[in-house]
Fold:
Amino acid sequence: MEWINVTGKVGYFKGSVNIGYARISDKTGLIFDAGLDDQTMKKVIKQLESLGAPITHLFISHAHADHYGGAAHLQKKYDVYTYAPVFEEAILRNPMLEPLYLFHGTYPMNEWRNKFIEGKPIRVDEVVSLEGDRVLQIDEIPLQVLSLPGHSYNQYGIIFDGILFASDSYFSVETLEKHNIPFIVNGEATLATLHKLLAIECAGAFPGHGEYEENFKKIVQANIQFHEKILEEITDIIFGNNNKEGMTLDSLVGNACKNRKIEIKSVTSFMLFRTAITAYVTKLILKGRVELIVKDNQLFVSPLA
Ligand SMILES: [Zn+2]
Structure:
């Protein structure tokens, strides 16, 4: 993984999932997110050691395995004081909660559990809870913490030395196009977070997937348009052919994916898309456009206005 130095105090290891680093003081350094697995974390530790960078703290932005899967290894090698957002922290301590929620509470079969949705459990030393955004003190040096929900239930980002560690609050355009329907759990919060990012004052930002940019707000804007387009398509599918009945949630998932030429290849992947599409539907419910009803013992998304 390539080390990208941004300000001297802040940089990140560029990979399919970026890992941030903040040199808080000569003796204190914080790793932001931990990558997918031990292998990734080993490379990061090796490079930080060769840079002579202190490793004392860890901040996990949200409980997705590609962001915390390497944390158990880091905790084994270094006694890192670990922060995590409230709620996400429960999943970090009990990682089976992710496959459990994706499969609607059914105890997940072994073949549904893999390192992409379930990492090793970690210790959380301090649960961070925000009422409004707040400042965390490490060695009396302030670190701003931001609430960035939508992609996950309670994702947090940080700002240090003027740089926003944005995690998955926005994606690079390439990442959006790759996933085509990005994973979200709350359509309303996803868009509110993106609008919040547009108003943030900082010198630049790097996302969990993508590159550091000073002008990151143009990418945030592209994210907003991307989500709005998906919402429009989903609305058209539900309202299509003067279909007053609407359609089952499962056929909406099938049609929305087909519309974007997505071919779902595994049961786990289906559950991820189903969660994301249902999250867009909840936004339409809040707007009063559709409702979720039960008909013939099936879950229907029905048009309203
Ligand atoms: Zn994520």
Notes: The two ends are 50 Å apart (CA to CA). Residues 62, 64, 67, 151-152, 168 surround zinc ion (CB under 6 Å). DSSP finds ten helices and 15 strands in the chain.
